[in-house]
Amino acid sequence: MVPLSRIAEAGMEQDSFLQEQQTRLTELLRPYQRELTRRQRLADFVNACIRSVGRDDFFTLYELLQSRACSEVEAEPGCEEARDIFNSLRADATRKVERSQLSFQEDFSRLAQEAGLPVENNFPRLRLLQGIELVVEFAQKRTLINDKPLKTVDPQRIMRAVLALKRRLYDRPFDPQGFID
Fold this sequence. Notes:
single chain, 181 residues, alpha+beta, five-stranded antiparallel beta sheet, 6 helices
């Protein structure tokens, strides 16, 4: 008969062996998981481009086509056709963004009027209500809202951000006693 301690010892050796093999397999799997994650990120980028093209959201498409993910897809082996597609989309989006600069003031004023916000227009500086100031920087394709950058010059996205700030600043009840205390 085998002593109980030897059986326990053999079981511990088996557990140790299995744990070591599991660790080795995990290490073996790690590069495949990284590659899968990288490819999924690139696929998500291409899907975002497809959605932007489908909606003719040229501001978002312009931003996507300037990103590092775009460069990664273009550099991917077997994706030479993507470079041509992205270049033509980039040219189209750039043309539309530049054209939108001309109509920005009109579009933004209309959106502000629809939202019931008064606008002091000293373009590229705009002021809405007391405490909401915008600086539109077309060259950098961004807007500063109270010195906080928003990476877009899309009037609708800017107005959504302004309305969110307005709600935070103006649309909550003011309790003067609570403020004093």
